[in-house]
Write a structure and sequence with these properties.
The chain contains 14 helices and 12 strands. It has a 6-stranded mixed sheet, sandwiched between helices. A 4-stranded parallel sheet has the order 5-4-3-6, with helices on both faces. With 363 residues, the chain is of the alpha/beta class. It has helices spanning 20-26, 44-58, 74-86, 100-109, 121-132, 148-167, 184-195, 214-221, 244-252, 262-276, 282-289, 295-299, 321-331, 345-348; strands at 16-19, 29-34, 66-70, 90-94, 113-116, 139-141, 175-179, 203-209, 255-260, 308-313, 357-358, 361-362.
């Protein structure tokens, strides 16, 4: 661990790659920002890491710092991962809906304590605040998305993209695609675009799934709304209410809200695995889904073959091979609507493929 005046960095610069398969599928140049390679397995390492970094530096008694995070999964994992790097304990409180796989990953990452309580995130959060945080003088509250330091940490993604595009001798992207849960990533991207003076020229697609579309409904109403519950398989997008800042920035800047189905999110997951050998949650698969079957061109008809679109591969740790296979089985019917372009690897491996290939091998 570094000195108190200079703690170690809690996130990494991730690769930006151009995907041949997704570019062919989308009809324009697709760049993938691989946030799945962050220490915690998702973009959460940036925002949560920034919050922990500054909280630790500014704590009146750094040696007593104890981080407390209410989370459905990925934010808690990012908190524990960053806290361990700082050499400080972290307690995570998750609702009863959190899957055993995610609980095991948070514990394995080094959580000093993991408590599962409450039927949803709000109840888990209330328990953490009232029963744990108030009783710890060294306690630091770590919100999953609604905090300025979280947004600032997430904004570093755009600075990296700017530097990496220049390194590739490329101009700025014409569009960026990110998924929205509570809005922490969207806030960071929009703030980062403003600093690069890209806000007016770079279109942002904000993706949600049906049943987890709190931003879309808020934009439609012109004010924050609270969903009665989350019914989507993309549970990492499961914020029933987005941050006020996310709504304000989405109204101010060049944001197009897009809602797709669970079937499309699932399709994005297994097709990304087949096309780029990358495993992600449905909350991330929804971003990739826009590349296939003309969706991106329908959303942004002005795109040309040379246009550049950057997709945030936000990652997520609640995914296994079994998950992807289950998506194929449950949502395989959806592939009846997909393209027949044999030049895209995932077209050949689709559940309805008639080309002699199957997910189990060659017939």
């Amino acid at each position: 661990m570094g000195s108190l005046s200079c703690p170690p960095k809690l996130w990494i610069e991730t690769p930006l790659i151009e995907s041949s398969a997704l570019s062919k599928a989308a009809g324009c140049r697709i760049f993938l920002k691989l946030e799945n390679l962050q220490p915690s397995g998702s973009f959460k390492s940036r925002g949560i890491g920034a919050l922990l970094y500054h909280s630790y530096l500014n704590h009146p008694k750094p040696h007593l710092t104890h981080f407390y995070c209410p989370s459905g999964g990925n934010a808690g994992l990012a908190c524990v991962t960053a806290a361990k790097t700082l050499g400080r304990p972290a307690t995570v409180v998750v609702p009863m809906s959190t899957k055993p796989l995610m609980i095991a990953k948070i514990r394995n990452a080094g959580a000093s304590e993991l408590i599962q309580i409450g039927k949803n995130w709000a109840e888990a959060d209330a328990y953490l605040r009232e029963e744990l945080l108030e009783k710890d003088e060294g306690g630091v509250y770590v919100p999953p998305f609604d905090h300025n330091e979280v947004w600032e940490g997430n904004s570093t993604l755009v600075q990296e993209v700017a530097d990496q595009m220049r390194g590739l001798e490329e101009d700025k992207p014409d569009a960026m695609v990110c998924s929205v849960g509570g809005g922490g990533l969207l806030c960071g991207i929009l703030l980062g675009l403003e600093r690069q003076h890209w806000s007016k020229s770079c279109q942002v697609l904000a993706l949600e799934t049906e049943g987890a579309d709190s931003l879309n409904k808020a934009l439609t109403k012109g004010q924050l709304i609270t969903l009665p519950g989350i019914t989507s398989i993309a549970t990492s997008l499961g914020a029933t209410r987005v941050a006020q800042k996310a709504l304000e920035l989405a109204q101010k800047f060049n944001v197009q809200s897009v809602v797709l189905s669970d079937a499309e999110a699932a399709m994005g997951c297994w097709r990304l695995a087949d096309d780029e050998r990358i495993m992600v949650e449905a909350a991330c698969g929804i971003n990739v889904a826009v590349c296939y079957d003309g969706r991106l061109k329908r959303l942004l008809p002005e795109l040309k073959p040379e246009s550049k679109v950057m997709i945030v591969v936000c990652g997520g740790s609640n995914v296994t091979l079994e998950t992807l296979m289950a998506y194929r089985t449950e949502f395989g019917w959806f592939e009846g609507k997909t393209t027949d372009d044999q030049g895209i690897p995932s077209t050949l491996s689709a559940p309805n493929a008639t080309n002699g290939y199957s997910v189990d091998g060659w017939r």
